[in-house]
Every structure is written in structure tokens, then in C-alpha cells.
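subagent[fold] <- orchestrator: predict structure for attached chain, return C-alpha cells only, no commentary.
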Amino acid sequence: MSIASGPITQIAWVTDDIDATEQLLSEQFGVGAWTRIPDVRFGPDATTLRGEPVDFTIHVSLGYAGDLQLELIQPVSGKTIHAEFLAANGPGLHHVCFDVADVDVACANAEAAGHPVLMRGSMMAGAIEFAYVDGSAAGAPYIELARIGPDMREFYDAVKRASREPQA
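subagent[fold] -> orchestrator:
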């Protein structure tokens, strides 16, 4: 029984300077235009950290390298694995994301395989459900499992198209 079979749909960084990370990836690695989403709030009604409700805010920026989504996360307030990672390690690669059909099944498989689920949540009325699995014992800080609904896929497609447009 596997947790997820891929492909990896996203690579994410946690940063304390989202502008600088965007600039590095654009100027030095050809990432196109970024879509910045400031002050994304995850409330305790839809998000848990180690099984307890949490309320936090992050800045998010999305870009693409080919068909691979790049996500930048800058913690703003509240408890989250992103802020914990930044405090413990400084800025850096945080997670890879696998698209899954059922987050509950993927989380049950992760737990059965001995990989704790640290954070779970949803947003946009369930347009996306996500969970972060602890992969640190095997050298991967976190693995995100995400069920991406049609509305969120449409949004991601629009971000991908925008990232390929020439920058002014």
C-alpha cells in the first residue's frame, strides 16, 4: 500500500522574504510571472496542527517552471509548520506536493506506514484539501498530499497561463 504515486505537482519554499525568493527564481532560473496572494488566512474551523485547531496567516506566491508549480510561503502570524520550519531551519525547501484523489485515504495510509500527519486543512469551501506528512526521518521535511477540486484546478491553470506571458 502506497501513500501517493505521483507525479509531484508542486515544490514549495518557506521564506522570510518572498520578494527576494521570487527575484532569485525569476532572474536566475527563468520562472515567469508570479501570482502573489497576500494574507491567506486558515482558520481553526478548517485547519489543524497536530490534531488541534489553528488559526494562521501566510503570504503565498505561485509560479511555474514548465508544468511544475512553485509555491513560496511566508508566515505572517499564528502557529503553522511553515513558521516552525522557518524558526528551526531558516528559509529553504519545505515540501513537495502529490495530488491525491482522497486525502482521508492518503492520510490513513501515511499513518499506517509510520509517517505522522502533522497538519490538515481545506480552503475555498473544500476546493482544495491538504495534509502535511512528516518525512523528516527519511530526509524530506514534509510531503503535502492535496486533493485539488475543479475550481482550484481552474485557478492554477490561470496562474500557469499568466506565468508564461511576457513580463513588462
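orchestrator: received. Logging for downstream: The helical segments are 18-29, 81-89, 103-112, 150-164. The beta strands are 8-14, 35-42, 47-49, 52-53, 56-65, 68-77, 92-99, 117-123, 128-134, 142-148.
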